[in-house]
């Protein structure tokens, strides 16, 4: 797809052959954002894995300390006390059989789906509707849990799901905030994601694990991050370095 004039102009405002320290890269992302809306800042991590192999699948969730800057719509499949806990925690949509029927009929107006374990027998039949959109509840991501209230609070507060898609050959792409966030707020989230990806490294992964990292805004160009400088220090967060 042809790039617009603003995008092409922004690519001339930095050295595309260079990889930057995390703080520098995020400063560039913020300065190059030209849209009239508050663009999302995304982080892309290329991993040295083959996610088509069962022993190299990477999927989970990470709590972003600064949040995402996005209003997350949470749907919860639950009944009885679990449903009440979900409502009290701020879930946007809560239901049992009725919600299963709504989703089966095409309702998908939510960003995260959470289910209590007793509902999964019925929610499981929604795989064709929820799966392609990455919305299917899964114990590995904390979206199938008896503690639905706690899960609602976490996803509303900045917990996001990550996964290395088989189609992208090992790329993990996660939103880490908004252009309006401060540099430090973005760096805190950057560090949280890098720490989580390292923690999730499968034992079957061989060779260099993190192969490249880039950050970008919704409408802006990707800025390469120097993988030798991935560890964001407390001093950099305080503005002393970077």
Task: Report on the architecture of this protein.
The chain has 9 helices and 9 strands. With 242 residues, the protein is of the alpha/beta class. A hairpin with a 5-residue loop joins β8 and β9. α2 packs across α8. The two termini are 34 Å apart.
The separation of the N and C termini measures 34 Å
The dominant shape is: globular
Report the mean per-residue pLDDT as an integer.
90
The string of secondary-structure elements, in order, is HHEEEHEHEHHHEEHEEH
Features:
4-stranded antiparallel β-sheet; 9 helices; alpha/beta; 3-stranded parallel β-sheet
Set out the fold topology.
Layout: H1 5-11, H2 22-32, E1 40-47, E2 59-63, E3 74-77, H3 80-88, E4 93-95, H4 97-104, E5 112-115, H5 120-123, H6 127-130, H7 148-156, E6 159-163, E7 171-178, H8 183-199, E8 210-217, E9 223-225, H9 234-237
Parallel strand pairs: 3-4, 3-5
Antiparallel strand pairs: 1-7, 1-8, 2-6, 8-9
Short structural description:
By secondary structure, this protein is α/β, with parallel strands linked by helices.
């Amino acid at each position: 797809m042809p790039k617009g004039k603003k995008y092409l102009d922004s690519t001339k405002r930095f050295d595309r052959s260079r990889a930057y320290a995390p703080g520098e890269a995020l400063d560039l992302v913020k300065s190059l954002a030209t849209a009239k809306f508050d663009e999302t800042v995304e982080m892309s991590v290329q991993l040295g894995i083959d996610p088509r192999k069962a022993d190299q699948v990477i999927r989970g969730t990470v709590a972003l300390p600064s949040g995402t800057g996005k209003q997350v719509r949470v749907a919860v499949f639950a009944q009885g006390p679990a449903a009440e806990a979900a409502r009290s925690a701020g879930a946007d949509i809560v239901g049992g059989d009725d919600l299963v029927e709504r989703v089966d009929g095409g309702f998908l107006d939510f960003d995260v789906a959470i289910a209590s374990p007793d509902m999964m027998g019925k929610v499981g039949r929604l795989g064709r509707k929820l799966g392609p959109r990455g919305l299917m509840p899964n114990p590995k991501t904390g979206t199938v849990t008896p503690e639905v209230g706690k899960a609602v609070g976490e996803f509303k507060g900045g917990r996001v799901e990550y996964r290395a898609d088989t189609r992208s050959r090992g790329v993990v792409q996660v939103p880490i905030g908004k252009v309006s966030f401060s540099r430090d707020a973005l760096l805190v989230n950057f560090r949280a994601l890098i720490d989580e990806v390292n923690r999730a490294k499968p034992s079957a992964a061989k060779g260099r694990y993190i192969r490249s990292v880039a950050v970008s805004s919704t409408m802006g160009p990707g800025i390469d991050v120097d993988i030798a400088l991935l560890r964001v220090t407390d001093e950099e967060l305080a503005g002393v370095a970077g």
